Amino acid sequence: MPMLSSNKWLKIYRLMACIAMTFIFILHTTGWLEIPTMQRMENIFYDLRLRTTVVNTIDPRIVIVSIDEQSLAQEGRWPWSRDKMAYLVDMLFDYYGIRLLGFDVVFAEPDTSSGMALLDKLASGQLHDNRGFLSTIETLRPQLSFDEVYAKSLQNRPTVLGYFTSHIAEKNAQVGLPPAPVAQSDNLPFTSLLFHAKSYTANLAPLQSAALSGGFFNNPNVDQDGIYRKLPLLVQYHDHLYEALSLALFRALLGMPEIKFITGEGYGRTDSRLEGLRIEGFTIPVDAGAAILVPFRGKQGSFNYVSASDVLNGTAGLEKLKDKIVIVGTTAAGLLDSRATPVQSLYPGVEVHANVLSALLDQSIKSRPNYILAAEITELLFIGLLAVVIFPRVSIITSAAIFSTVLVGGMAANFYCWREWNIDTILAVPFTLLCLLYGVQIFFGFFLESRKKKQLGDIFGQYVPPELVELMSRSDEVFSLQGESRDMTVFFSDVRGFTTISETMAPHDLCELINAIFTPATRTIHESQGTIDKYIGDAIMAFWGAPMHDPRHASHAVQSALAIIQTLAAMQEGFKARDWPVIDMGIGINTGVMSVGNMGSEFRMAYTVMGDAVNLGSRLEGLTKQYGVKIIVSETTREAAPDFIYRELDRVRVKGKLKPITIYEPLSAKPDIMTGRWHYLDELNEGLQAYRQQQWDSATVSFKSLLAQYPDDKLYALYLERIGIYRQSPPEPDWDGVFTHTSK
Fold first, then answer.
1. Which of 439, 455, 471 is the last residue of a domain?
2. What's the CA gap between 704 and 702, in Å, rounded?
3. Which residue, 231, 331, 449, 469, is the most exposed by fewest CB within 10 angstroms?
4. pTM for this model (two decimals)
């Protein structure tokens, strides 16, 4: 049974948690499931993004004529008489020469401040026989009918009146006269998603009839936290569609063109959701409820303000109002026309409409097109797949780097879409999902890694170094103590003359000597991902390629052997200082298919390797004495570790084997080769070739030359000795040049 089978349920729980979270967030994004906390977070991110990207400039095209504290102080409490409003309109058009006038106030009740009603009562009562009185009343009537005076001032001028709608069916559901609707709604299927008004309070009929147009100025689409983020441009009342004040002002500037509706299937199609409005070449993106994101330019003061009292007194300055779009609204604190917005907690309602009109003119409306939902779901699926497929397979540092990259990249992409493409896409949902899924990985990963590391440490800790256990714990590989066949590399080392050394040293000193040799040797093997099989007296048996797969097991074994020999040479001075003998070591290395697993008996088990390839490695260690070298590797090891320079030693049959092999001595890693350092290898190869072809004279010349250069090298003397024997007793004519060893 695989060692880590007990962790499967933890992995399943982690997978299920990731899938469930991703699915829930997708349901929230598609509108099938509402998560209030996520919506609040989304609003917070929206406000933050809006505040950091507002232009903070003043639009000089639009001026707000404010009924402010100064105006109330000079002109009296609001509402003012209609003759004063008429005078305000006359001043704006005739004296200041404005381009367009809109009102963010409603005139729903008749103006009785002139006293005309009292005069009519007297005329019908006590003074009904007074012809002079009656004549005077008729003469004064045009001047004292303030509503008519106001209506005349609005007539034949580009004026847009405001009114408000309500989702509550008031007792008096229809007050005043609404402006002309922009469309019939009975043949438009997308209207089911629009705001449906139940009542309205509009302007007096004479006033609305005199004005060019009208638009509602209330916002029925306020978010749950009371913040104005969206504003519908259309509402439905009965079977008609009516426009917002800002849209009515925009159409008035263009000459009141017709509104065309853009649906998901394109213009003229009525079988999909509303996506936008088309007006005289201008495209206004809206959501399915015909709402837009209010495009705030900044805090209050993004438009020039002029006090209404200054206009009435003629002291406002012509340059401030000439050819401007003017919106009249109340800003005095007592008139309660302030709104909570993302850019400011108390924001004048009249400036909200000015912001929308400004953005309509600039075509800078932020929008959430219908297709963005598919992109958002794809983003959430990508995050889910990242957590399911990538995070569990990488280290904690790599997963942290991926998490940070995706987090920062996602936020940057979101801000880029917002700023450059005017597209609003969700930010809090993917941000939160990514953090939650990463947290799930950390949470479960802690238990999985701790559990896995403990199991690996319990089973393999006595064979492999802690560093390898750590590496194994981060691997997806399934580790088992069951026997299996693998391509691996085995390593045998032996201290030369250890029997003689042990006879001359005290047991305590002998123990210290062995520890001094084995400690650095074991450290070197561990550092190259090797596994210590066992210590056999003065010998070390190790292998590479298990329990963790290592595609470079042969190279790591050869590298370790060279490092051990080099370390041992450096230790000789220390041994000499302690009156210890000179220590020499022989190492044999072979690569091949071996059986690896927990082997032994019911009394004792050991994680070890077995097989012919293992036996050959042991034989090669024994041959190091005969050839006078410190390391011998087989031809299979040389092929599997080509990144070293080798000296060919011989072709041999070891004891117990019929198939001959070529054996080599590794000299150095190729990057360490110095120019001309191994020049003698060519001469050695020539000598070996002549030797195997029984060209004794030529071979003798080569080996004598090499022996003269390297008198301490036993290999060349060995071949000269063999040649002498073969001259006396020549081998068979078909001799293959293989030397058969009859001892271990």
1. 455
2. 6
3. 449
4. 0.63
